[in-house]
Amino acid sequence: MVKVENLIFDYQETRALDNISFYVPEGSITALVGPNGAGKTTLLKCLSSLYKPFSGSIFIDGINIIEKPLEIRKSIGYLQDYFGLYDDLTVKQALAYSYFSYKCHPSQLENRIIEVAYQLKISDKLNSKISFLSRGFRQRLAIALSIIHKPKLLLLDEPASGLDPESRNSLSELFLELNKEGMTIIVSSHILAELDQYANNILIIRNGKITESEVEELKSEINDKLLLIHFNYPIDNIDELLKTEPLIKKYEIDGFKIKVLYSGDVAEQHKLLKKLIDNGLPVAQFYSKQPNIQDYYLRKIDEEQL
Questions:
Q1: Three-state DSSP class for 19?
Q2: Domains plus CATH for the chain?
Q3: In what order do the strands lie in the sheet with 209-210?
Q4: Left, alpha or beta for 41 (phi > 0: left; psi -120 to 50: alpha)?
Q5: What percent of the chain clears pLDDT 90, i.e. is strictly above it?
Q6: What pLDDT is attached to residue 277?
Q7: Which residues have CB under 8 Å from 29's CB, separation 6+?
Q8: 3 near 58, Cβ under 8 Å?
Q9: What is the average pLDDT value for the chain, to the nearest integer?
């Protein structure tokens, strides 16, 4: 669906995107994560054809958007982090304006407005002036404007900004619904814990670069289990024992606490626990959790700061 090769974008003396390449498969929901200033917004603007990169290529649905930016725009929906709305219009007027700006057929306008308003829970606001909307409803309207034309690719820059927890949960459900309808979605968000509710692909960007090996590493790690093992006191030789376990991929020892990335199933976990007890180790706690995008990303940041 989205193929990027050797993309470079500069702001005067700053290189925002440094020769990045990646592929986003059709029908995926991709989380775009990274620290502030990493290049996420710049990348989304390039993908939306609003920014023209210094060099490299971007193909969306087989179209070279650098050479043919106008040809692809009807197939893209884009919500910017800082968006503008026409305050003097009603919600319904704004949706109609956006619909016609994509040259969609007039006969489907009313049905499409009703559908999108229902999806974003703004049906009771259709006749309200935008200037009277709260921050949360303005955010919902902005999302509605980005999907009114049923784009094949939806680009979202911090879509949950300004939404309360209940609305953010509804937003996650909306992404899954749109995805089932065939929409490919790329979401940039700082709310990492919520990305696990809908994302099935990830791009990590830092200092303008995307490292493909990190993507594959994460895909592997989120299929493993994180074992948390506590002993009654620190064990001197525990490191030697952990190294002999083939299903232990990584581990971290902190006094009497151990974090283990484990590729075995529940039965294998029971065997590991039995082995620890049979070796006379004072196991106080032994439990597992599923690693997620936030666990992985924060650990990577910690590794960089060491």
A1: strand
A2: 2-213 (3.40.50.300), 225-290 (3.30.70)
A3: 76-79, 153-157, 184-188, 29-33, 201-206, 209-210
A4: alpha
A5: 66
A6: 94
A7: 175, 176, 179, 184, 185, 187, 198, 199, 200, 201
A8: yes
A9: 89
